[in-house]
Amino acid sequence: MIELKNEPLAKYCTFKIGGEATILFPETLSELALLIADFAASKKPYHIFGNCSNVLFPDSGVGFTAVITTKLKTVLVHERKITAECGASLNSLAIAARDAGLTGLEFAYGIPGTVGGGLFMNAGAYGGQLSDVVCGCTAVTKDGLVQMLTADEMELGYRESVFQKSGLIVLEVYFTLREGDKEQIGALMSSYMDRRKKSQPLEYPSAGSVFKRPVGHFAGALIECANLKGLNVGGAQVSQKHAGFIVNKGNATARDVRELINLVKEHVKENSGVVLESEIRIIEETE
Ligand SMILES: Cc1cc2nc3c(=O)[nH]c(=O)nc-3n(C[C@H](O)[C@H](O)[C@H](O)COP(=O)(O)OP(=O)(O)OC[C@H]3O[C@@H](n4cnc5c(N)ncnc54)[C@H](O)[C@@H]3O)c2cc1C
């Protein structure tokens, strides 16, 4: 297990924002499971993260140990099944599927998260989401007990899962895919990546789409209609390229981002009556 003390969280998240923490990087699944059991027994506060691509850390650092899973990245393919450790990137998962001639995970290519963070969020894009292809997982309860879950037990909905309510930590995820044509799979993945590059401000740090898609609307379109593109607080700005993104233009603080989120919510509500809900996980100063 790797342990880093007084380590800036900004270094590990896609927003490049966040104060210091003690960070642990378990190197095997059993190390992670034992670690959770130890935390449960000692009642010490901890929080699990994958690639930190959907979180906003506070400027002042955090009062818990951050456990980052990105060293747990094994992906195994057997016939039409894939087993992936929680810290494997969604990119490597999609690539493993393509290389084995398996279709169903093309949409995941380009989502900068891990398998565990992806399942927690039921990540999706271009009409696909993990719930389409997940068939089960192994998880640890907050009391440190390892258990298996079926896809139904994960209660996967639009950016929702049982993991958000239960404190269950995902260890390993199982996918069932269909046979496909390697070249067609690769071509679809490349076309999705091209669409991302054209439509998303990938040149700046961000945490992706800040808001969930409200029923019957698109958050980006509502924000654009309220004339908020380019609005900034300190170093945080509503992206000029994709209004659903808030980007860090260089020295944004978590406070800047939180203020900007609140401003966007207020203006959108005033302009269209729609209440936006954050998709990104905002970690508060005291957590
Ligand atoms: C440029 C950009 C583009 C993006 N595009 C998309 C997109 O197209 N579609 C989409 O859905 N998302 C998108 N995202 C958001 C993000 O990549 C996804 O939400 C991703 O699934 C988060 O995974 P992560 O590993 O980074 O999770 P983290 O950000 O590390 O964590 C997110 C949440 O998951 C929890 N978590 C992490 N690992 C585990 C685990 N093993 N067990 C239990 N809980 C866990 C954390 O506690 C946290 O609450 C984008 C982000 C960026 C920066």
Record the strand order, biggest sheet: 6-7-13-11-12
Nearest-angstrom radius of gyration? 19 Å
How many separate domains make up the residues?
Answer: 3
Q: Roughly what is the average pLDDT, rounded to an integer?
A: 96
Quick one: biggest sheet?
Answer: 5 strands, antiparallel
CATH architecture of the largest domain: 2-Layer Sandwich
Number of helices: 7
Structure at a glance:
This protein has 287 residues and is α+β, with helices and mostly antiparallel strands. Helix content is 28%, strand content 26%.
Write a structural description.
- With 287 residues, the protein is an alpha+beta fold.
- Helices cover 28% and strands 26% of the residues.
- Helix 2 (90-99) packs antiparallel against helix 5 (182-199).
- A five-stranded antiparallel β-sheet has the order 6-7-13-11-12. A four-stranded mixed β-sheet has the order 1-2-5-3, with no helix packed on it. Strands 15-18-17-16 form a four-stranded antiparallel β-sheet.
- It has helices spanning 29-42, 90-99, 115-121, 163-166, 182-199, 219-225, 254-272, and strands at 2-8, 20-25, 46-49, 55-56, 65-68, 75-78, 81-85, 102-103, 124-125, 128-129, 134-140, 146-150, 169-176, 178-179, 206-209, 232-233, 236-238, 245-248, 281-282.
- It has three domains: 2-68, Uridine Diphospho-n-acetylenolpyruvylglucosamine Reductase, domain 2; 75-197, Uridine Diphospho-n-acetylenolpyruvylglucosamine Reductase, domain 3, CATH 3.30.465; 201-282, Alpha-Beta Complex (Uridine Diphospho-n-acetylenolpyruvylglucosamine Reductase, domain 1).
- A hairpin with a 2-residue loop joins strand 6 (75-78) and strand 7.
- The site of flavin-adenine dinucleotide has 33 residues, from strand 3, helix 3, strand 9, strand 13 and strand 15.
